[in-house]
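Morning run. Coffee first, then this:
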Amino acid sequence: MIERARSEGLEPAAPDDFRSVTGTGVVASLDGRDVVVGTPDLLSERGVNSGGAADALEAMRSRGRTAVLVASDGEVLGVIAIADRVEEGSRDAIGQLRTIGVEPVTMTGDHEGTARAVGAEVGIGRILADVLPDEKAEEIGRLQDQGHRVATVGDGINDGPALTRPDVCVALGAGTDIALESADLVLMHSRLSGVVAAFEVIRNSYRKTNQNVALASAFNGVGVPVSAAGIPHPISADGGPLPHLVGPQDHGFQQRRLTGTNGDDSVRRC
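And here it is:
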């Protein structure tokens, strides 16, 4: 917004007082005037009636824009539309997640109309909107109480306690420091295709681990009783442990070459 103002030849003035209200906007004092920039709820709390801007708000939300109201001394001066750019390939990544049994859910502090417009663009039908930062952990808990295992993907902005609540926390490479430190998995970039690759690599790793356990158990289950019975010749017995040692190692080296089927190797590099 500041960059746009400067491009219009306006130079923002320094406020006398400034306070950020998490998840709803900011309030400030500028040249003796009370200024509020934020959601209709924030303006209402400050005694500002935003009913006259209802049509403009709805029009922006239907287009997937986040509408921010600007008011001064109890009067609405205008509405600013903010839009997040949808990453290329996001819709394909959402479809790939569904094919591997993952149901995407959008949880956001944006208005429901805005969230549903963006959700329709990328193919997400289940929307949890108007969720404040301190309510996100509660929403994750509700999903877990319904029997779901929950993985969150985000940059950590306005997430706070929600970062430690899910079963798996995935942080985007451009995320906040707290998100990167709290995450179970960090992607090298901000593309959703990396999430698909991460799930595939994790599942492949789990499958390889089970195969290693099966190989080792099969050798011990057969080889140890046979050796105890004195059946193998001493010379051939020296080579007996080789399959037990080489097999799991070969599987382990194969794991280093695993990437997602969509060709995204960001998780492997990470």
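The longest strand covers residues 75-82. Good start to the day.
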